[in-house]
Amino acid sequence: MLNDIYNKRIIELAGNIPRLGRLPDPHASATAHSKLCGSTVKVDLKMDGPVVTDFAHDVKACALGQASSSIMASHVVGSTASELRELRETVRKMLKENGSPPQGKWADIALLEPVRDYKARHASTLLTFDAVVDAIGQIEARAKQPASA
């Protein structure tokens, strides 16, 4: 039942999203959009090597997209590119393949586990993870380009 996914803790996370806004000079920006529900998450990212040093986001999403964005914003700074790629895959598997939720600092994502029964809600739940991984890819691609003279 939908009440299982829109529980009190999800609503609290959705109502208290940290790091809202945009960074003035991000190393990369990425947008993820769900055609199904119209939710959109835009992220700005700064990195020092493989480590996220700053993050901001503009979240126009349902409570599930807001809750997942809230969890991301709470823990992304200090995380590595490989950790965040692995996190996206873990969340995708949790929703689509009955995988286990992540552990450690990302354990709050287990609150989103009931979403697996509502396929129409998967995209909005994954938006923040997709946007962050996209931004990381942009930063890494730029770092590999030779400096122009």
From TrEMBL:
<feature type="domain" description="NIF system FeS cluster assembly NifU N-terminal">
    <location>
        <begin position="6"/>
        <end position="123"/>
    </location>
</feature>
<protein>
    <submittedName>
        <fullName>Iron-sulfur cluster assembly scaffold protein</fullName>
    </submittedName>
</protein>
<dbReference type="GO" id="GO:0005506">
    <property type="term" value="F:iron ion binding"/>
</dbReference>
<dbReference type="GO" id="GO:0016226">
    <property type="term" value="P:iron-sulfur cluster assembly"/>
</dbReference>
<dbReference type="GO" id="GO:0051536">
    <property type="term" value="F:iron-sulfur cluster binding"/>
</dbReference>
<dbReference type="Pfam" id="PF01592">
    <property type="entry name" value="NifU_N"/>
</dbReference>
<dbReference type="InterPro" id="IPR002871">
    <property type="entry name" value="NIF_FeS_clus_asmbl_NifU_N"/>
</dbReference>
